[in-house]
Amino acid sequence: MNPIKIAPSILSADFSKLGAEIAEIERSGADWLHVDVMDGHFVPNITFGAPVLQAVAPHTGLFVDVHLMIENPENYIADFVKAGAHMITVHAEACVHLHRVIHLIKEHGVKAGVALNPATPISAIEEVLDDLDMVLVMTVNPGFGGQAFIPRMVDKVKQLRDWANAKGHTAFHIEVDGGISATTAKLVVDAGADVLVAGSAIFGAPDRAKAIQSIRDSLN
Ligand SMILES: O=C(CO)[C@H](O)[C@H](O)COP(=O)(O)O
Ligand SMILES: [Co+2]
Predict the structure, then answer these.
(1) CA-CA distance, 154 to 190, in Å (whole number)?
(2) Which atom of ligand 1 is nearest to the CA of 34?
(3) 3 state SS of 38
(4) Domain ranges of the chain
């Protein structure tokens, strides 16, 4: 099992001082930086695009984990790689040609992930599992921060980890995203997740270092 990584989502950061917010979570013990890109079509909300990432990425040493909640993600892979992405995750539900998109991401020299909405079964990625560096199990319906964790997703994480282990696919990440906090983190880690995205639980806390540490402590 990979060491547990905590990936604060900048969706819940103060956008008026994004660079300072990222520097703070880096000093506070974050492992990855989770970047939520929304287009107002695939999800009913709009955030930001590659130019915003390009402005902040050179100023952080964190691993940049880009979560594309957009239609036609294949049109934007090159832009996000140029902007500083280290991993790009696309939604299975947004890709008619999922295999092609995964290979396009890898051809750009970055890691590739696929996200599954709560209603999408893990069988949707059966034919591409071997090609993936990560599966993102959404533990809320994508589109907004601050939503309640969906408990049924714990079983989905477990099914996925068991399935990957059975295939000998052990160096592969399972990320969970949505409603992750010191209350829910242990449930998903015990089920097999190793990357924990948290937006409101970290950026909504007055002391970000304490918030990250309390998620880590909850895993013991
Ligand atoms: O992808 C996302 C929403 O679609 C966000 O990463 C996620 O919701 C994080 O926010 P919170 O931890 O507040 O639930
Ligand atoms: Co996300």
Answers:
(1) 9
(2) 6
(3) strand
(4) 5-218
Query: Which residues make Cβ contacts (< 8 Å) with residue 198, sequence separation at least 6?
Result: 6, 7, 8, 9, 180, 181, 185, 211, 215
ipTM above 0.85, yes or no: yes
Mutation probe of ligand 1 site: the residue of 144, 181, 184, 195 with most atoms within 8 A of C-beta: 144
pLDDT of residue 135: 98
pLDDT at 171 over 90: no
- pLDDT at site 1: 63
Tell whether ligand 1 has an atom less than 6 A from the beta carbon of residue 211. Answer: no
What is the sign of the dihedral through the CA atoms of 119, 4, 31 and 110? negative
Please tell us whether the domain made up of 5-218 is placed in CATH 1.10.1370.40: no
Residue 16 CB neighbour total at 10 angstroms = 7
- Secondary structure (DSSP) of 64-108: EEEEEE-SSGGGTHHHHHHHT-SEEEEEGGG-TTHHHHHHHHHHT
Say how far apart CA 24 and CA 146 lie, in whole Å: 20
pLDDT at residue 124, as a whole number:
98
pTM of the model: 0.98
Q: 């099992």: which residue's tokens? A: 1
